[in-house]
Amino acid sequence: MTRNIIAILRGITPSEAVAAVDVLIDAGITNIEVPLNSPDPFGSIKAMVDAFGDQALIGAGTVLSVEDVNRVDQAGGKLIVSPNVDPRVIVATKTAGLQSWPGVMTPTECFTALKNGADGLKIFPGSLLGPDGLKAIRAVLPQGTQVYAVGGAGPDNFADWFAASADGFGIGSALYKPGMSTADIAARAKDIVAAYDGAK
Questions:
Q1: Cβ-contact 35, 62 below 8 angstroms
Q2: CATH number for position 189
Q3: I want to staple 171 with a disulfide (CB 3.0 to 4.6 A). Which of 30, 63, 73, 175 is the partner?
């Protein structure tokens, strides 16, 4: 069973990349994001795709330019996550046949993202909007819009977010911090998946 969890591996290096994705997939997390402010992110993405491209959706976060989209595409990544709504980035992502998940906070940003072809919306930072804010915005969103909460969403409040209609989550430092051992990543991933399944 695959879950609507995007693992945000900020700070990961190419030498750690394959082992980390291996334990994440094993735990049931198959959406992987390497933020572009990590060391050699394109090298990490390529290593992950070469090893697990058929088992996981792998791509980049903190994608701010069309050039970045093209480089992720060249590395074999299929997922583009941004902290903001930039129509040029969304259009370039969809033109390349990749998934687009821009960061949104307001109804205006939600509709701008959807109008330009976004596959889903990333509420960021989730802690600012909160479950109540999502509930209010959900009332006006087109039916079926996928909304993930990122930043301020985790095992402690998965149930609150689900109750407010969140479809999934992006999980960063609760799952991975630079220098963490593979065993630690595996243990955290297992706990997060158990909390997700319990809240669902």
A1: yes
A2: 3.20.20.70
A3: 175
- Rounded to two decimals, the pTM is 0.97
Q: How far apart are CA 187 and CA 65, in angstroms?
A: 35
Domains of the chain: total: 1
Contact call for residues 7 and 180 (beta carbons, < 8 A): no
Does residue 122 carry a catalytic annotation? yes
Tens digits of pLDDT across the chain (200 residues): 679 999 999 999 999 999 999 999 999 999 999 999 999 999 999 999 999 999 999 999 999 999 999 999 999 999 999 999 999 999 999 999 999 999 999 999 999 999 999 999 999 999 999 999 999 999 999 999 999 999 999 999 999 999 999 999 999 999 999 999 999 999 999 999 999 999 99
d(C-alpha 200, C-alpha 12), whole Å = 29
3-class SS of residue 182:
helix
Q: Which of these is catalytic: 16, 33, 46, 78? A: 33
Asked if 46 is an active-site residue, the reply is no
Structure tokens at 177: 């911090």
Considering the candidates 46, 78, 122, 135, report the single residue annotated as catalytic: 122
Domain of 68 in residue numbering reads as 5-199
